[in-house]
Every structure is written in structure tokens, then in C-alpha cells.
Design goal:
Blueprint: E1 2-8, E2 12-17, E3 22-32, E4 35-44, E5 54-59, E6 64-75, H1 88-133, H2 139-184, E7 191-201, E8 205-215, E9 218-229, E10 232-243, E11 249-257, H3 282-286, E12 288-289, E13 319-321, E14 326-328, E15 335-345, E16 347-352, E17 360-367, E18 377-383, E19 386-393, E20 401-409, E21 412-425, E22 430-443, E23 453-460, E24 469-473, E25 484-485, E26 490-497, E27 502-514, E28 517-518
Parallel strand pairs: 1-4, 2-11, 9-18, 12-28, 16-23
Antiparallel strand pairs: 2-3, 3-8, 4-7, 5-8, 6-7, 9-10, 10-15, 11-13, 11-14, 16-17, 17-20, 18-19, 21-22, 22-27, 23-26, 24-27, 25-26
Helix pairs in contact: 1-2
Length: about 525
């Protein structure tokens, strides 16, 4: 067997980024010799998953067969001293650390010297006290010794303050230098992997190697940018990609997938579903129990999964591709990758639902113009005045209705009032609940503003599911009557307001129930 242990470069050429990992594809041109040979390729990321390693060799002439492919890893710890290839910032960090260590040792010596001088001064004062008690007077020597101790104490104290100030300045400089290194440079990988490939070639000649494997520490999420210019809505679809695999992706073909390769699936278990019939009691036959409950109007599409991480793809794997080669450094930061740009004619609406919120919101509606599925994700909203905030885009199929809220308007105010009356009659036994909802809508305009504005107001009516309870809209008592009332009980008005205009909407409806109904 011929052995070639000189590493052959194996760059990354294509990446399929999954929800929590990445499928990396590499390729290299080989010059094969006849017979069995072993090659060493790399380096590659040490995070490569060994069982997923797959290699294919295509020879220009003859045939080549891969006998064995494995990943070997080597640990090369970084030395404590700076190397010749280190940057100026790293050399400066090392120099500051060395100077700080020297100053800390000098500070310890100065503190020890000051402590010794303090004890010496105490001994000298004690000697003066004892000598004076015995009648000995050596004033000249005592004065000289005290002056010498005080001078040395002051000199060393001043030197210590200078060292402390310098250490403080060096600590600030060290933090700034380390922060700059963290932002601008990457630590070289200490654990590297190489691919050892054993193959057999029938004839010598050039060949093409294609190798793929999974790697961790890579993920992506969809993000959007909606720009509204009058009635023109431009929707930009981007992907935020993070990766810290230990190697940069330079000019790779990027594919984004919602496939969950690590998610184990199995068919649901079949369990018996027993249905039993129970005779109702006489009291249950005489009464009908009802209750008022809140229910969200369901729409076609996947059920929302609030609070769960991951990409909402509607239960079907979605694949997006970058239109051009991209580069993603292995710095662990978010990198925005453009995917598509589409424009559509938008339908603007100023909408208000007073029962939910007293605000009037600018809502933009259109059909999905992207030509592909829009996954759930955040969307940056940009209007005529610039960036207006961030919203959320739900899962939207191609051509499906798309709705975006571009924020509320402070020049509108809505006040909601509800009155309720109850009437019971003996013959026939019947209970009627009458509710009156008044909506006061006001528009506050700036001086000189002209032009009317249409505001769509929505208010809901209860919807009965049993024949014993009837909900009836009293159109003759409404002022004005709703323009439409849909099957879900949503009443809608299109109110036109001039500058500084005011309107009051009155909605009256009755809930009638027979005497057998309880819980109303």
C-alpha cells in the first residue's frame, strides 16, 4: 500500500443548513496512483459526526473504489507564549499581562517594605519611651532615626500609589484589548480533524473526490423585511445563519432546510376507543345547560406552537436556496443571507377592534408574492418614515393571503360602552338578554390636514350552537346598522371620518333562551 500523509486541502463547497445542525459537502481533485493507497485530507472541523461520513471517488479513466474512510483528530494546545504569526493586538495583550505581573510583584514588595517600616517606627517609639522612663536622653539620635523612617515610608508610599495607578490603567487597557481581540479575531482551533481515506485505483490518473458529513453548532431561522411605499409592498426574505463549527464557509452553495434529521418518528399507537350510552335523568331531560366560552376562530394552516423553539414549516419539509454563493464565518454571530425579493400591490386598511384594543392599527393585506412558502418568523416593518417596528409573520403558503400590521395611529381614539338588560316572561317561559354596545370613534387631526379617512371597525356577536338559544341582531335599533355580519358573528362597519370628526356606532342584539336553558 502506498501512503501519502501530506494533508490534501478539502474545502467546503456546499452546505445544507438544518434546524439545529448542517450537512457539509466537500470536494477535492486527486492524482491517483495504481493500486491501494491511503490519503490524508483536511483539516476539517472536529465537530464532524463520524457515522455520517460518506466519500465518493470518480476517476476520469478507469475505476476507483473507496475501501475505508475515517476521521482522526489531533490535539494541539496553544502555547503560553505568543507565536511569530500572532497579530499586534495579541502581542499587546501579552505585553500588558507581563507588565501587570511585574508591577504586581513590585507592589507586593512595596507593601512588605511599608509594613516593615511601620514595625520599625513602632519599635523606635517604644525605645524612646523606655529610655525616657529611665532618664536617658538621646534626642539627636532619636530625631535622626525617626526622620529617616518617615522619609523612607513616604517615599515607598508614593511609589506604591504610582504602581497602583499604573495597574489600574493597565487593567483598563487589557480589557479593551481583549474585547478588540474577541471582536476582530478568532482563537485557532486546538482540536483538528483529518480524513484518512483508503482507496484502490485500477489505473493512475486524476479523480474527483466528493465527501459529506453532518456537523453540529450550526442553525438558521427565517427573517423578513417589509417595505411599504404607498400601495406598493416589497417583501424581502432573508435567512439568519449562525455557525461555530471551527471553520469558515467561504463561497459555498447554501441550502436551507426545515428537515429534522434527529427527530425520531413512529406511527401512533392504536388504543381502544369505547363509546357508552347513558340514560339521562328526568332533571337532565327537563333542562339544557349552556355556558358562554371564548373560542379563537380557526384558519386553514398549521396549529400555532407558542413558546416552542424551531421553525414552523406547516408539518412539511421546506427547502430554500441562496441565489448566489455566500460566506459565513465561524464566529457564532448572526449573518443575514438574502434569499428573495418580491413586490405586490397592497390593500391598506385602518382597522379597530374596540373589544380587544382601543387603538386604530394600519393593516396591510396582499397575497403572498414570494413564489415560495413563507415560514413563520419576525419581520422588520419599514414605512414612509423609516423603520417602524418589528412584527411577526405566520406560516403563509404561496398565493395565500398575507396580513401585516404597521403599527397604531395616535390621532384616533375609541371608547367602548356596554349596557345589558334582562327580561323574563312566564308565558311562554322565556329569558331575553338585550345588550347595547356603543362605540365612540374620534379623529384628532393636525392643523391644515384635509381628506377623509375610512376606518374599519369590528365588533363581535355571540354565536349559538344549540337551538334552544337564539341570537338576533336588532337592525332597527342599531345606529347605523353593520355593513356586514359574517358566519362567525363579526359585525363590520366602514366609517368615514373627516378631520377632527366624531362618530358613534350603536350595536344592539338579543340573546333569547327558552325556560329549559340554565347557565345563561
Amino acid at each position: 500500500m502506498s501512503t501519502d500523509l501530506d494533508p490534501i486541502p478539502l474545502p467546503v463547497t456546499a452546505v445544507t443548513c438544518l434546524e439545529d445542525r448542517a450537512q457539509v459537502e466537500r470536494s477535492a481533485d486527486l492524482d491517483l496512483r495504481t493500486g491501494v493507497q491511503r490519503l490524508r485530507l483536511g483539516p476539517i472541523s472536529a465537530l464532524a459526526v463520524d457515522p455520517t461520513l460518506h466519500a465518493e471517488v470518480t476517476a476520469v479513466e478507469g475505476a476507483a473504489t473507496v475501501l475505508d474512510a475515517r476521521i482522526v483528530r489531533a490535539w494541539t494546545p496553544r502555547g503560553p507564549l505568543p507565536g511569530a504569526d500572532d497579530s499586534t493586538l495579541r502581542l499587546r495583550v501579552h505585553a500588558v499581562n507581563e507588565e501587570s505581573s511585574a508591577l504586581e510583584r513590585q507592589r507586593d514588595r512595596l507593601r512588605a517594605r511599608l509594613d516593615l517600616l511601620s514595625r520599625l517606627a513602632a519599635d523606635l517609639l517604644r525605645e524612646i519611651g523606655e529610655g525616657a522612663g529611665h532618664g536617658a536622653t538621646d534626642t539627636a539620635r532619636w530625631t535622626t532615626e525617626l526622620d529617616r523612617v518617615d522619609d523612607e515610608h513616604d517615599a515607598h508610599g508614593e511609589h506604591l500609589r504610582t504602581v497602583d495607578a499604573r495597574l489600574t490603567a493597565l487593567a483598563t487597557e487589557l480589557r479593551q484589548a481583549e474585547h478588540a481581540v474577541e471582536l476582530s479575531e478568532q482563537h485557532p482551533a486546538e482540536l483538528l480533524g483529518h480524513v484518512e481515506l483508503t482507496l484502490e485505483a485500477a489505473t493512475a490518473g486524476p479523480a474527483r473526490l466528493r465527501l459529506s458529513h453532518l456537523t453540529a453548532c450550526a442553525l438558521w431561522r427565517p427573517t423578513y423585511r417589509a417595505v411599504l411605499d404607498g400601495e406598493q409592498l416589497t417583501l424581502e426574505t432573508d435567512a439568519m445563519v449562525w455557525q461555530r463549527t471551527g471553520e469558515d464557509w467561504r463561497d459555498v452553495r447554501l441550502t436551507l432546510s426545515t428537515a429534522r434529521s434527529a427527530l425520531a418518528t413512529e406511527p401512533p399507537r392504536l388504543v381502544p376507543d369505547r363509546l357508552t350510552l347513558t340514560d339521562r335523568s328526568p332533571a337532565e331531560r327537563r333542562t339544557v345547560a349552556v355556558e358562554l366560552r371564548e373560542e379563537e376562530i380557526a384558519e386553514l394552516g398549521p396549529a400555532p406552537a407558542l413558546g416552542l423553539p424551531g421553525v414552523d414549516d406547516g408539518g412539511r419539509t421546506q427547502i430554500l436556496r441562496s441565489p448566489a454563493p455566500v460566506s459565513v464565518p465561524a464566529d457564532g454571530r448572526a449573518h443575514r443571507i438574502p434569499l428573495s425579493v418580491a413586490a405586490a400591490t397592497a390593500r391598506n386598511e385602518y382597522a379597530c377592534s374596540p373589544e380587544l384594543s382601543p387603538l386604530v392599527t394600519h393593516v396591510v393585506r396582499c397575497d403572498n408574492p414570494a413564489g415560495h412558502t413563507l415560514l413563520a418568523g419576525p419581520v422588520d416593518l419599514v414605512g414612509a418614515g423609516g423603520f417602524g417596528g418589528r412584527g411577526a409573520l405566520r406560516f403563509t403558503a404561496p398565493g395565500a393571503p398575507l396580513e401585516l400590521a404597521f403599527g397604531s395611529h395616535d390621532d384616533y381614539r375609541v371608547l367602548r360602552e356596554v349596557e345589558e338588560s334582562r327580561d323574563s316572561s312566564a308565558l311562554p317561559q322565556r329569558t331575553t338578554v338585550t345588550r347595547t354596545v356603543r362605540l365612540h370613534l374620534s379623529r384628532f387631526s393636525a392643523p391644515g390636514e384635509a381628506g377623509e379617512q375610512t376606518v374599519t371597525v369590528r365588533e363581535r356577536l355571540p354565536v349559538s350552537e344549540v337551538s334552544a338559544v337564539e341570537v338576533r341582531l336588532r337592525k332597527e335599533a342599531c345606529s347605523p346598522a353593520p355593513d356586514t355580519v359574517d358566519a362567525e358573528g363579526i359585525a363590520r362597519w366602514d366609517v368615514t371620518l373627516p378631520p377632527n370628526g366624531r362618530r358613534t356606532l350603536t350595536l344592539v342584539y338579543e340573546i333569547a333562551a327558552s325556560g329549559k336553558v340554565t347557565g345563561l
